[in-house]
Each structure stands twice: as C-alpha cells, then as structure tokens.
Design brief:
By secondary structure, the protein is of the alpha+beta class. It contains 7 helices and 10 strands. The chain has a 5-stranded mixed β-sheet with strand order 2-3-1-6-7, sandwiched between helices. The radius of gyration is 23 Å and the shape is globular.
Length: 229
Amino acid sequence: IHFLAHHDMLTELPNRSLCIERLRMAMQQAQRSGEKVGVLFIDLDRFKNVNDSLGHPVGDALLRSVARRLNDAVRVRDTVSRLGGDEFVVILNGVKADEEIPRLLENRLLPLIRKPHLIDGNELHVSCSIGIAVYPDDGTDAGVLLKNADAAMYRAKEAGGDNYHLHSTALQSAALERIELECDLRRALAQGELVLHYQPIYDLRERRFHGFEALVRWQHPERGLLLPV
C-alpha cells in the first residue's frame, strides 16, 4: 500500500508526492553541507506523435525505457521521478559546482535518451527538453524550484527541443509577462477589444482588386492599438 501511494505504476518511479518529499530532504542536507541541489524538469519532445501513430501500449513501453535510461544516467543517491504523462523530474543531490549539471546532461543524460529505443520491433528515436533550477540560487522552496525548472523547460522546448535551459530571473519575468498577457487576452475577448482591419489585395498586372486580407488588431485600453507581433 505504501508503494502504491508513493510510486507511479507504469514506471515504478517515485510519484509527485515522493518527489517533493525527497526534494525537501535533499534541500535540508544541502543546507547543512553547504552544497547545492539540482532540479531537472524533463519533457519528451513530440511524444504525442508516438501515441497517435503507434498506439498507447508502445507509448507506455517507451516511457518505461526512458525511465530506465534516466536512472542509468544519474547516481544512486539521486532521484528520478515521473510526475505524469511524459514529464519526469530528476533531483541531483550534493552538487558542488554549477558546471556539474550541464556536464552530466551533455555527457550522459541527453546521449542516453537519444539512443534508439527498441519497442515491439520498432526502433524509436526520441529527444527531450530539460529545464534546470538549482537550490538555493533559484529558490528555497520545493514548489518554487519545480515551477522554475518547469518554466526553464518550456524555454528549452521553444528553442526547438533536444536541449536544456537554465532558470534565470529574466526567464521568471517572461513567464509572469505571459501570464499577464493571457489574462489581458481573456478580458479582451470578453469586452470586444479585438477588431478586424481589412487590407486590399491589388493585382498590378490586371489593375484590379482580388480581395482583402483580414488582419486582427487589439485595441488595448492601456497600450493602445497592438499589432499581431
């Protein structure tokens, strides 16, 4: 019963609750030793394509294969956990220097994930996007560290995937700006702030109009007229 409550049944890795518990323990140990803790938020790139094309049983087998390789990439004292879907979190204990984490990713973790996964006769190639947050530099709370690593992961995914990104203050500001923008957009839809402008399409050779291009504009109450860019 204890195992069921604290582990993911598909991969048998620690689940979210056990991940947070171990992260808190790692932070306490790091506080005493003066070392750091690395938090890696990992998301597989285009995993949905595997489920859609080959089916969920193959997708599940791929997740188990990725889980084994993540465990092989890190030390025994580190923790590999699955939060759900194709999201994993790795807790790196006793980090002595910041450069240790990129070195581990480039020399061990990323190459292992990139190697072909043999699943039911299929040779599957998969990559991942990784966000990095470090205790105590990027937060002294488990929830904050996970959130910051998650935000950094999305930046790695936006850059094309198959890479990693370190959390930064600028990244946090960008994330807050995106949240503010989303709230403003919801209000804009409700209050009719989005308007259409029509641009004529003119054929110079035939010297006549062929139609119009419809372009959305946002009449923002504070920023004025906003273009799509």
